[in-house]
Each structure stands twice: as C-alpha cells, then as structure tokens.
Design a protein that fits this description.
heterotrimer, A: mainly alpha, 3-stranded antiparallel sheet, elongated, B: alpha+beta, about 55% helix, rod-shaped
Amino acid sequence: MYKVKLETFEGPFDLLVYLIENAKMSIYDIKVAMITKQYVSYLEDLDELDIEVATEFIVLAAILIDLKSKMLIPRLSESGEALIEEDPRFELVHRLEEYKLTKKRAEMLTERMDYFANVYEKPQEDISEFLENPDEFLNLDIEQFAKAFMLFIERKQKISEVRKSYQNIEKRRNSIEERIIHIAEMLKSKSNSEDIYNFNEFVPNAEDNYEIALTFVSLLELIKEQEIEANQEKIYGDILVKKIKDNTEEEIEQ
Amino acid sequence: MNSKRKIKSAFESMMFIWGQPLEAKEAANIFDITKEDAYELFKELQKEYEEEGRGIVIREINKSFQFVTIAENEEYIEKLCTPTKIKKLTQAALEVLAIISYKQPITKSEIDAIRGIKSDRVIDGLVKKELIEVIGRSDKIGRPLIYGTTDVFLKQFGFESIKDLPEIEDLEDTLNEDKLEGPTELHEQLRMELQ
Amino acid sequence: MNSKRKIKSAFESMMFIWGQPLEAKEAANIFDITKEDAYELFKELQKEYEEEGRGIVIREINKSFQFVTIAENEEYIEKLCTPTKIKKLTQAALEVLAIISYKQPITKSEIDAIRGIKSDRVIDGLVKKELIEVIGRSDKIGRPLIYGTTDVFLKQFGFESIKDLPEIEDLEDTLNEDKLEGPTELHEQLRMELQ
C-alpha cells in the first residue's frame, strides 16, 4: 500500500475517510478488521507528531479496535439464538457521515473562495469634505418627552409629601409646651385617691411613637421643674407618676 | 458574450478599479487593439450609461476615461456622507420645555417657582435651539418676558398644534402647589437629596 | 426621469461613493421610503447590471449592496494593476468554517467533536480574519462561547445571506470524481447561481 504521510491529514477522521475511500469501501459497509489494521499501521509514524495530536489519533484507534472485537464475537443470546441488535458500526458511520459532509462543504467553500477572490471592490471615494461639519440632530420624541415630564411630576409630588411631614414634625415640636399644660390639667382635674398616675394615661394615642416620646419628654421637663416625681419598679415596667403638691398651679400658670 | 461586449465589460472593471482617468491607449494595450478602437469602445460605453440615466457616468478627460457620479445626485451623496451628531436634551431642559408647553404663556419667575430652582440657563439653551421663544411681555410688575413653544417644537414632537399635547392628570394640582410660595431653601435641599 | 429611476440613479451614485456595502435601510432613510422598497430597487438595479453583461455588478451582503467587478475580468485587472489578494485559507480552516457556517451557533467542543481533533488555533485564526465571531454564550455547563459567521464570510464566499448555503446530498461519490469538473464549468455554475 502506498502510504501518505500522516501529517497531511487534518485529523483521525480525515485519515479514516482516506483509508475507506482508498479501499473503495462504502462508509455504510466498513470492513473493520482491514481498515483497523491499516489505520494502526499509520500510527507507527506517531513519534514525529506532537502529543496532543497523537492522543486524538490514538483515541480513534482504540474505538476501531473495540469495534473490531465486537464484530468478531458472534452476537448470540443466552439461549443460543442469533441476536438482532444494532450494528456496532452505527455510531462510527454516523460520525463519518458528518465528517464527510464537512469535507464536501469545505470543498464547496474552497471553490467559491477561489472564484470570489477574483471579485474586487473599490475603496471609498474621498468624502472628507462632508466630514467636517456634522449635522446635529436633536433626538426628541414624544415618549421621551412625556416620560421625562412624568418623572418630574412624580418627583414633585414626592417632594410635597416629604414637605408635608416635615411641616407636621415642626408643628408637633412646638406642642411640647401644650403637652405640659395638658398633663398639668389632668393632674389637676383627676382626683385619684393617692395621686398616682400611670404614664400611659398621659398618652392620647399609644399607637403613635411620637405621642409617647412627646409625653415622656414633657414628663421629664416636669420632673426637672420638680412638679412631679416618677418611679419605675423594674425595666420595661409601668412608670408611675405622682404630683408634688406644693405650689404646682402657680408655676404652671406662668 | 461577443468580443466587443467582452472588451467593454473589461473596460468597465478596469475603470472601476483604477479610479483615476484611464488612458484609452493603456486599455488598448491590454487587448492588443488600436487606441482608436479602444477610444471608440469607451465612447460607446459612455453613451450607454448616459442614455440609461444611470447615477454613474463616464467622464472623458483628454482621451482618458473615468467613472464619476452625476452632479444631480450630489445632495443625496451629501446626506449619505455627512455624519450626524445626535444631541439629547437634559432632564432639566425637558422639564422646562414641558412646563412651558403646558403652561404657556409663562414668565421665567413662574417657571422658577414651579421647578423650585433657577432656570435661566436652561431657558436660554431652549431659545437657542428654537424650541421656545419670547412671545411678549406680561402686564405684571417689571413687565417680565413671557415664553411659549415654537413651530420647531411642534415639528420635533410631531404635533400639529399645541392642543395635541397629551393630557396629564393632576398636572394642575402638582404645578400650582408651589407657585405661590416660591422656591425655599428647604425645597432646594430636598431636590438635591432626591436627585 | 420618473421618481423610481431617479431613486435608483441616486442609489448608484451612493454605492459608488460609499465603496463599502451600503445598507438598504440607510439608503431608504435618505429618500423617506421603506427599507423594503429600497431593497426592491437595489434588487432591480442588480438585475439590470447583470442582464446587460456589465463589467461591474452589484453584490448583496445581508441587505447591503456594493458595486464590484465581475470575477471573469480578473485577468485584465491584473494586467492593469496589482490589486491586493485575500490570502487563501488552509484545509483545516476551511473545514472549521464549513462546520460553523452550516451549524451556527456552535461551540468549540462541538466543532472538535465533528473533526475529531482540537480546533482552538484554527478558530482563533478565523476570528482574526473576521470570518467568524463570538456571538454569545451557550446555556450549557461552563457557558462556553458560541461562534457564527460574519458578513466578511458572506462577502468572501459570495453568499447574499447565510440562507444561501447550498445543500449537499450524495455523500458517497468520492472526492476525486468532483475534481474532474473543470474550474470553468464550476465558475459558470456559480455565475448562474448568482444571477
């Protein structure tokens, strides 16, 4: 057999297709034993190739040898009848088909490449005179306009909301004084036998933290002024408030 | 393809690639024909392109020939070759434009009041772009200038008239809210925070 | 000159000046016509040049159009000047290109599986030549890069779009049989296909 150098093949399939075609076989009826022998004899050249390429050639050799042994063993069932099963060559044939198709397509591309290499385009004409003064376009469309405007309105609405609560807080801050008067009035009007009040009684809306804080601050103020005294038995326990009796009314009236 | 047509076809390819005026003599050498014959063939080609009303024709300069575009198509070539810079309006400019378009006629201080920020530079920019213009003076103290949108504005947005502006709900409420109060420091601060 | 002829004339001028493939869409913008109408007009022009047997014809690449010389006049152009030739591709490169063009989008390992050999270096070379490009990532494990062909590929191999890739049947006739057909015959066939 006239041997073509292994380096001239694009890969293991290229070599296999060459061997099959050279032996005038159909890929659909490969004589595995014969082809495997030829293929393996090519691998004797392998030491000249780099290891990466060698591996790929050897992988296909292994597949071929495996296939050869499968073809040799008669396929019989346990009861001794011939078994009809898939041809073990099926997968290899499928891959060879794919590879042959690739080769054909590559060939078609080669012909087209050679033909179209003779077609020439011309360079762009000198258009520098047009490049100096670019047209300026305002990129505007109604959607963009509306979107930007809506965004503005939304932001504005947010601002006024923030402002409203800001104003609220200012209003409430001014009312510490009012709360002191309110507490004082409660202390005056209520006639609890022992003059002891629960802190919660001074909070009009216990849900509102601000109300609680306001009352607390007011009471601190009153303690500082020595108008009342407050006691808490344990942490998180009830705060009990007691009025200090001397000259309360006069001081608060001022 | 007869040989005359074949030679003319080759002349076309050669002129196309050569770019510069191609001498009839030089073309003749390639085909081993006389320069008179080559000249004749170039003239035939020239006539063909002219009669067919093509956008490229053959120009003769002293027995040399060259493909050129026809002068009538200059404007399209210019449109094709002139690069375009696309400019966008800033968010601020869009806001001012929106306020003017919906509230026109409107003075600068009314715009400032709605936006809560000075808009002088933005307004000048929009005037320069011809999207808005001064349409008169207000009767109020100081007789301030009043602004409105232009036809350029309508054209840009594809409106036929200012009545085509899409309706925006709550517009009046939102825009009127601050109008009386004017810009405040707090407002400024909030604007900054929200941006 | 009617308006259709006028637009076609302008397209000719524009293509000539532009040199590179001119998008039908871009040409349409200049005339305020639809890109479909522009495409039709380009196709009409293309047919005219081919039927008249001109030495310059119009090449389509993915809805873009460009004047080019006909391959048959290459020898005369060569005598006139030395145009730069595109370097030929290796057999390996053509194999990989054949796989990518027909199977795109495709990953490197899928290409390797078909060839039975690693294709990394070949793929890099094709990317450098702008014949193929990374067009995304696969959803598969490792999210490998996926490749596809470019407009440069279409141009160099004379395809108008990737849909033009011919079907190849009959795997069994050997490679040698094909080679009996002379190049001229094949070229004729290609010319017919292009018309």
